[in-house]
């Protein structure tokens, strides 16, 4: 299906940049373009470039930058990588992500190794060349017909200029194989009442100033662009009218590929890049989207966390994969999820408030770090256990489940995690031995237990039944874990460790048997990273099923 050139495959590259403002959906655009090209029989891969000095996303506070998405190989990346994997069904690795920090670091390391043969190593061309060689390497590794590259940030920022320079250089080198799409925003100010294209015109001019002309303009707006606006954008931005693709606000991100096809985006790309694609066919995806749309019966899920507040605004991006995984499992059960974000700190200020959880069909506590809001989360877990409300704990949410159980069922007073109270008499959650050394050396970056590990399931447990398997592989991101010295006491006290590392030392899932509680389960790993619309995660399915039962 690929374009062939004398039998040799010719790789094509699509760059996606953002104009006017951030948050216009570049990540979903990349994911949707990929999905569409796959549906035309093309092999795709995707990369994200983040313009930060941070070498990876692992050291960034989630309220600064949203979720840290962990790849199977353990690389800590941007949440967009999660969208790519979910939409395109890809399994990406560290070669698919880079930051300014990483690029500079590798150029500097190579300079120290005398790999530039005495040259004066310069920002241009050496930095963009490093970027280009990484893009090409990822493309080659995936044997991709089309490689889609998202440049983080917005054009006009100082930070991403070198990445735009990489586009310019690649375009000179391979004029027929490189396409640039700008995702821009077209506002309709309420007092003006008319859709305004000027910000987009400015964004494209700014992009032109870097030597890059967009081939396609994806116009995000609260409504579809009318013909007049499309013509205006085309005239002032040097493209044809059919190169302006409308991307109106819609209820679900999963409808974006379908919407793009209304403006024939995949045909447009295929033609511009001289690709040979199969006839359009995204029926499977359309079926999933219809199933999601038809889900009407509500299931009410509370997510109790802490990384929500940014000034006066609530950020749910921090838990984006969790949110999507809840949606996937709900849709598959024919349910419409109503997700409410609750700040755990409020249960510390006002303990009686925890009874509000009664209203929900299920409660989920996602991953986290540090001590803020922790006692509130523990109270929430206790309430769920005692009131038989389905509870699902992810990573920290599992560790806190164990702490709650140790304190309130085994009566181990002051039981805690070494992360919060290293002097506790009962460190039921302790630092992993190899992690101790890392913290001593202040080796914080990319040093947790990260990425995919296999675990063995114990038969006849909720987990084993949900997975229908004996062995699983899931993604991790933690430094602490259930203290093996307490495992047998917890077991004797009724807690079931239904998954452990193959050597039996690390507890990967804790649960209560069905006879005691409809669903009280926590995972040391992050199941949310491996859920998609087409293949919802088995544990999320089981959790939502239990919640649906309570709803009845
Ligand atoms: N803070 C805990 C740990 O490091 C949990 C991490 C998480 O929830 N991702 O083990």
Topology at a glance:
Layout: E1 4-5, E2 8-9, E3 12-18, H1 26-39, E4 44-50, H2 62-65, E5 68-70, E6 76-78, H3 79-88, E7 97-99, H4 100-112, H5 123-142, E8 146-151, H6 161-173, E9 178-185, H7 198-209, E10 216-221, H8 227-237, E11 244-248, H9 256-262, H10 265-272, H11 283-294, E12 297-305, E13 309-310, E14 313-314, H12 320-332, E15 335-343, H13 346-349, E16 362-365, H14 374-387, E17 391-394, H15 396-408, E18 416-417, E19 427-431, H16 433-440, E20 449-457, H17 462-467, E21 471-478, E22 480-482, H18 484-492, E23 496-500, E24 507-511, E25 520-523, H19 538-551
Parallel strand pairs: 3-8, 3-9, 4-7, 4-8, 9-10, 10-11, 12-15, 12-16, 16-17, 17-25, 18-19
Antiparallel strand pairs: 1-2, 5-6, 13-14, 19-22, 20-21, 20-23, 23-24, 24-25
Helix pairs in contact: 1-3, 1-9, 4-5, 5-6, 11-12, 12-19, 14-15
The structure holds glutamine.
């Amino acid at each position: 299906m690929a374009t062939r050139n004398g039998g040799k495959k010719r790789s094509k590259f699509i760059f996606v940049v953002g104009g006017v403002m951030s948050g216009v959906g570049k990540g979903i655009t990349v994911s949707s373009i990929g999905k569409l090209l796959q549906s035309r029989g093309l092999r795709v891969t995707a990369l994200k470039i983040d313009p930060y000095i941070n070498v990876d996303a692992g050291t960034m506070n989630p309220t600064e930058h949203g979720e840290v998405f962990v790849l199977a190989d353990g690389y800590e990346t941007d949440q967009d990588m999660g969208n790519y994997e979910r939409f395109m069904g890809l399994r990406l690795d560290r070669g698919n992500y880079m930051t300014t920090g990483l690029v500079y670091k590798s150029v500097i390391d190579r300079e120290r190794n005398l790999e530039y043969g005495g040259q004066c190593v310069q920002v241009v061309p050496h930095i963009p060349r490093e970027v280009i060689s990484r893009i090409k390497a990822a493309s080659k590794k995936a044997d991709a017909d089309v490689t889609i590259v998202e440049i983080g940030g917005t054009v006009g920022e100082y930070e991403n200029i070198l990445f735009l320079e990489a586009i310019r250089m690649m375009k000179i080198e391979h004029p027929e194989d490189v396409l640039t799409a700008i995702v821009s925003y077209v506002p309709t100010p309420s007092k003006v009442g008319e859709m305004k294209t000027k910000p987009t015109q400015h964004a494209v001019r700014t992009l032109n100033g870097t030597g890059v002309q967009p081939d396609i303009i994806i116009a995000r707006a609260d409504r579809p662009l009318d013909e007049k606006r499309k013509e205006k954008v085309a005239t002032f931005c040097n493209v044809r009218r059919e190169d302006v693709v409308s991307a109106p606000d819609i209820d679900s991100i999963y409808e974006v590929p379908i919407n793009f096809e209304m403006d024939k985006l995949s045909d447009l790309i295929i033609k511009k890049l001289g690709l040979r694609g199969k006839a359009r066919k995204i029926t499977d995806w359309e079926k999933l989207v219809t199933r999601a749309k038809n889900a009407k019966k509500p299931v009410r899920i509370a997510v109790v966390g802490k990384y929500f507040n940014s000034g006066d605004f609530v950020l749910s991006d921090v838990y984006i994969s969790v949110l999507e995984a809840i949606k996937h499992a709900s849709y598959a059960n024919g349910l419409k999820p109503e997700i409410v974000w609750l700040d755990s700190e409020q249960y510390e200020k006002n303990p009686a408030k925890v009874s509000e959880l009664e209203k929900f069909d299920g409660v989920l506590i996602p991953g986290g770090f540090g001590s803020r809001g922790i006692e509130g989360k523990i109270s929430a877990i206790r309430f769920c256990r005692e009131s038989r409300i389905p509870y699902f704990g992810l990573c920290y949410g599992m560790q806190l489940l164990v702490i709650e159980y140790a304190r309130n069922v085994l009566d181990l007073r002051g039981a805690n995690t070494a992360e919060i109270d290293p002097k506790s008499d009962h460190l039921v959650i302790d630092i992993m031995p190899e992690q101790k050394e890392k913290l001593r050396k202040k080796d914080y970056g990319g040093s947790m237990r990260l990425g995919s590990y296999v675990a063995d399931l114990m038969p006849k447990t909720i987990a084993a039944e949900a997975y229908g398997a004996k062995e699983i592989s899931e993604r991790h991101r933690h430094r602490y874990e259930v203290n093996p010295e307490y495992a047998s006491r917890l077991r004797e006290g009724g807690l079931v460790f239904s998954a452990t590392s193959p050597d039996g030392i690390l507890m990967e899932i804790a649960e209560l048997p069905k006879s005691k509680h409809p669903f009280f389960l926590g995972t040391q790993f992050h199941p949310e990273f491996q859920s998609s619309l087409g293949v919802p995660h088995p544990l999320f399915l089981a959790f939502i099923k239990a919640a649906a039962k309570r709803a009845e």
